[in-house]
Design brief:
The protein is built from 2 helices and 2 strands. The chain has 79 residues and is α+β, with helices and mostly antiparallel strands. Strand 1, helix 2 and strand 2 form a beta-alpha-beta unit.
Length: 79
């Protein structure tokens, strides 16, 4: 992550969290770095992941906006 200066600076944070534990760590980090900033989350997950657990962990971020979609895994079957 890069430090940006100025009151109107926007950030883009990219992360590969795809489990409840890694998403909880991401949520803690985002809230620690941007405690008073509105946060928008855009997330796409493979359809074989635990979506409910990941979304529950993201609640800690208190997002202003969430865009969520799933994608099929290559060669996978629906579970």
């Amino acid at each position: 992550m890069q430090n940006a200066e100025g009151p109107h600076t926007n950030w883009l944070v990219l992360d590969g969290a795809h489990t409840a534990q890694s998403t909880a760590a991401l949520a803690d980090t985002v809230r620690g770095l941007f405690p008073d900033n509105p946060v928008a989350i855009i997330i796409a997950m493979a359809d074989d992941k635990d979506h409910k657990a990941v979304m529950a962990a993201l609640r800690a971020v208190r997002p202003a906006l969430v865009v969520f979609t799933t994608v099929p895994i290559a060669g996978g079957t629906q579970r």
